[in-house]
Every structure is written in C-alpha cells, then in structure tokens.
Amino acid sequence: xxxxxxxxxxxxxxxxxxxxxxxxxxxxxMAAVADETPAPTDEPTSSLxxxxxxxxxxxxxxxxxxxxxxNGFSGEASTDAEGNWTLSVPTKGIYDVEIQLDSxxxxxxxxxxxxxxxxxxxxxxxxxxxxxPLGVDTxxxxxxxxxxxxxxxxxxxLGLLLAIAAIGISLIFGTTGLNNFAHGEMVTVGALxxxxxxTVLGWPLLVSAAVTILIGAFVGWGQNAAxxxxxxxxxxxxxxxxxxxxxxxxxxxxxxLLFFDGDTKGIGTDNNIIEIGPIKTTAxxxxxxxxxxxxxxxxxxxxxRTRLGKATRAVSDNSSLAxxxxxxxxxxxxxxxxxAGALTALAGILYGLQFQANxxxxxxxxxxxxxxxxxGGLGTALGATVGALIIGMVVELSTLVLPxxxxxxxxxxxxxxxxxxxxxxxxxxxxxxx
Amino acid sequence: xxxxxxxxxxxGELLNPLTAVYVLAALGLAVHxxxxxxxxxxxxxxxxxxxxxxxxxxxxxxxxxxxxxxxGILATVVFALILGIPTLRxxxxxxxxxxIAASEVFRYFMTTIxxxxxxxxxxxxxxxxxxxxxxxxxxxxxxxxGPFEYREEQLWVRVVGWSLVAVAAVFLWLLMRSPWGRVLxxxxxxxxAVRSLGKNVFSYKLQxxxxxxxxxxxxxxxxxxxxxxxxxxSWGTTFxxxxxxxxxxxxxxxxxxxxxxxxxxxxxxxxxxxxxxxxVDIGWxxxxxxxxxxxxxxxxxxxxxxxxxxxxxxxxFGNKKELQFNG
Lengths: 434, 327
Prior knowledge:
Number of helices of chain B: 14
Shape of chain B: globular
Oligomer: heterodimer
Distance between the termini of chain B: 48 Å
Distance between the termini of chain A: 34 Å
Largest interface: A-B, 56 and 53 residues
Number of helices of chain A: 12
C-alpha cells in the first residue's frame, strides 16, 4: 500500500507536470495582449449599462451602429474613436444587441459571421459587455463544400475542447457513480483565472495556464476532500449526491460572480488569420486543438498503459472487487478528481482563449458535456471522447441548416433521439441502463 | 434599518401570486419525485409549455380565455408524453438529464429569432391578459389590511392563484390516498415488486408525469397572468432548481410540504434580501455593493439545497422512511 501511495504521488506529479509543460510548449508562440483600459464614458442616466468595444485587428473601429432591444425598450448606440460604446437601459432583464452590418467598413466582417445578435444579461448584474470581434469579411457567398469544411473544422475544434472536460465527468461517474452538475463551474474557473493572470495581471500565457491548471487540480482535490468523500462515508444515495452537486454548482457559480463580476471577458485576441483551403483560423485555435489532442492521448495512455490507470478502470468496473484485490479505492477516486479538475481547467483555458468567457460559461457548456458523456455511453472514457466529438460536430454542422441561435438545441435534441434508439449510448454496455 | 417595513415586505410574500406559482409547480414535482420517485429536472419547461400554450393561443389563434387555458393544459400533456415515452423505461438519472436537456431545448426554441413572430423571441409575449382582467368581479378599490393590502386586480390574481392551490392540494390528497396513489408509492419503493403484482409500471409513471406536469403548466399560466408577460428567461434551469429547493424544504412526499415550503422559502428570501441590503446601506458590509445583495440570495439558495439534502432530506413535514432517493 505504501508503495502504491508513492506511486500515486509520482503519477499525480507526472500528469500535472506533463500537462503544464505541454500547454507551455504549445502556447508559447502566441502573441501577448496589450492592456485594455476602458475609455471614460458619459454619465449614464440609469445604473444599468450595456457596453462594449468593437475592434478590428486590435484597433477600435469608429461609427459602428448597435441596436439594443428588449423588455419594451429599444435604443441605438454607435462606437467612438476608440471603438467603445455604452447605452443605459431602464430595467433589469435580457437584451438583444444587434450589430448593423451595413455600418461596418468595407471588407471587414464579423469573426463569427452568423452571430449578428448577441445577448446582454442584466437580470443579475448592473453592467454587461457585449463584444463583436471583427475580422476579414467572410460574408462572400461560399460553395457548400467550403462551408461544410469550415463547419467540420469548427466542430472538431469544439469537440476536442468538450472531450477534455467530458472525460473528467466520465471518470468521476465511472469511479463514484456521481453525475456531477458542478463540473461546468470548473470550466469557468479555468477560463476566468486565465483571464485574471494573463489579461489583468499580464503574466506570460505559459505561466498563467500552468498556475490555472494547478488551481483546477486543487479545486478537484478540494471538493472531493471537503464534500464528496464525507458524503460517500455517510452513504448518501447517488441521486441525493446529484442534487447536492446542483446546490454546490449554484454556490460556486455565484461565488465566481461575486469575485469576477458578470461582464463577458475576452481573453485572447489573436488576429493573425491562417488560411488552410477555405478554412480561416488562428494560431490560437490550431494550438488549442493540438493541446487538446495531446492531452486526450496522454489520458488514453494513462488509462491503458500505466498501473494506476488500470487500477482506475478496475474501480470503474467494480469497486468492491477492485478493493478486494488490494486497490485503495479512495486513493484512486482522489486521483480521478485531481485529474478531472486539471483537465477541465485546461478545457476552460482553451475555451476562454478562443471564445469569450463569463461566470455562466461553464454552466452553458455543462449540458453539452452531459450530452457528450451520455451519448458516448456513461462511464467510459473513450465513449466520452467520441460523444464529445459527435456533439461538437452536431453543434457546428447544424448551423448549415438551422439558425445559429439553435445550435445548442440541435445537439440536445440529438441526445434525446439517441437515448430513444440506443439508450446505452454509442459505446456503452447494455447493463448500465438498468 | 426599518424593521417594520422589512417584516411587512416579508409577510407580503406569503400571499404573493409568485408563491402560489411555486406551490403549484412544487406540488407537481411532489407527484413526480416525492410520490413516484421520478427525477424530473425539467419542471421549468412544463410551466413554460403551459404559459406559452395559453399566450400563443390567445395572441396568434385568437382563442377565448378558457379555450386558451385548455390548450395550455393539453400542450403540457403532449409535452409529458413526448418526454416520458422514451425515457421512463430508463434509469432515473437518464430521466434527469433528458428532462433538463428538453427544458433547455424548449427555451432555445422560444428564444430564437426565427419564431419570434409567434413566440416574441427573447422579449417574450405580453398583452394577452385583457380577458383575464375583464373577468375580475371585484370593484375598484383597496382591499385588505397591513402587509396584505391589494388593489382590485392584485386581489383578483391572488384569489385565482390560491383557489387553484386549494383545489390542487385537495385533489392530490384524495388521489394519493386512493389505490392509484398507493401504486405510485409502491413504484417509488420497489418497482419490481409492483411489476410482479401485474401492474403496468410504465403506464403509472406516465400518468404521474402528466398530472405533475399539468400542475406546473397551471403554475406557468398563473405566473403569466400575474406578471402580464411570458419571457423565455423566466423558465431557465434556475426556476427548476428553486422548485426543487421549495419541495425538499417542505417535504417531498407530502401535500402540505410544497405549500408551507414555498411560503417559508419566499419569506426567508425576502428577509435575507432586506437584512443584508440594510446592513450594506448602513455600511456594516463594506465588501458588498447593493447589486451583489441579490446575488448572495442565490448563493444562499444553493447552500440551503445542499444542506437540506445532506442533513434533512425528508424536509420539514416529511417522514424519513417515506423519502427514498433510489440509487
């Protein structure tokens, strides 16, 4: 047992070290971001403000018109010389912000061409920022084949991202039986702490990512030690634990809101477009995909080739049988939580660098993660990866036929349909559906 | 701090229509979870389907009020069938994930710009409650006393809401004492035993899902009448989780639990809001800003939910033997 314990420590160090080094190596070529200080604005008439900044290649764009509507209010704002705009609104609630495409300069388009409307959620906070990143105009009519290639690429990117977070859920479910609703908040932790270290404090990206992953690992270890292990000792039912995790998710989400505020944070600003055939992407996205792929491969090797990984799978299969062969089940669960925390934080980092993040980011991804895990087959790590790739593809490919604001709905519908046809998931075993 | 107004505000929550909405949805969830053992995490969608079904019938199809309410009820029944038929044969946690996914899908469809001619998009629908207000029998004036002082239209929506609660509570009480109710409890305790007695477990579960769903749908309609609007963001997962907190606070397998649980929940929510807000105003909590007070409330809801499930899963009124979280 002592030997295994030493082995355990070494493995944790190894996994964490490998992850940090990996992220560092792959992310180091990324450019640093200049500090952004919001320009002073006029005194608003109400304390509720929607604001934002429209930038193209790092420079603010003047004269862009944005229409804000919702809750019986509608108004217009235009950007100043620095690209900043603000608009005060009368009541709490959710507002639609639409960017007027005809006010954009010639040859400039949205980096995400489908999203001309974004939402500003002022139901809980006093100010919300809405960002419309600009880039090269991609609105030119594209051949269907090109569009398909672009969507497949975006789907692969999202799928890989979801996969590293979904593996955590899957390993935790496999070893403890818990459907952890608080998993999304670990993604948020990853994204927001990277924003804090990298964008606010100006640390190098490499260091920020490594420290964030350590924090993620600590959060995983900490919640197991403080909440889940004591509850397992009390022999709390699994469904009860699931509801506890919902409560914990709410607590964690609002703690993050208290510390980080509700506005949406742009973390990475990589404007160097790389063209691969019809696909326009950035170095950030390409490195992010590589990091995710390497992390997935590392987990696969860990699970199939190392002694500890085999022990993890043994606990997943049958924990009492595993315990009787001398495996320290609690120790394995602790490692799984630490790994899940680190991996999920990594997913948050990659998500935050490519998209934007706020206190609800993780919660919005959570259902996609559950869909991925359920689709692949609950409790199998390989299944979670396959499920995540399917969900990523469905989300992006659905925009070929559906409006962009229904893309998450499409993936959740696919989940419901698959459960009707094949309840054990794509790779699951039949006995698990009970 | 003005204690009198704080207490008045808190007591006012007791008969607030929103409290009645939560009672109705929680009674529905009691049928699902407390009596049958179904883990439904999509109660918000049942309420939303009822509310949208009613509002769209009035605005788009120009139905009279009672026809529209009937459509709202039928819509929740259909929604329960769509959700229940594929998932009720599966393990409990699959139902949990599918119901929460379905409720988000419904919200996305109500929010999308594509259908905003009918659904109103993210702004939602309003101007559907003229007929509801025209049925108000109370003449203009101020009614009641102290914290319970209402204008005629406020009184009307409260009378409708709490009458609905009373009818629903008596109906459920009778239902759960009947042989039908005993079969439900049997399913909760041991599905296989009930099946071996020759009962069609699937059919009973589906009936329970429909009855609980319709109660939530009625709650959704009441919500819409009292606020005079239907907005997609009212029906997020937060609504579902607050209903769960209300239910577990009062006691899942009881009729009184959801009623008293909802009242206690809202009174406590208002008390914490006013007291923390007051402390911030007089500068005792310098690290908080006024908008953060509202956020702290939600943090407390999460904490209460966790502590309840861990330390008193049977709630205030429940019997510990009766509350079994299967699995």
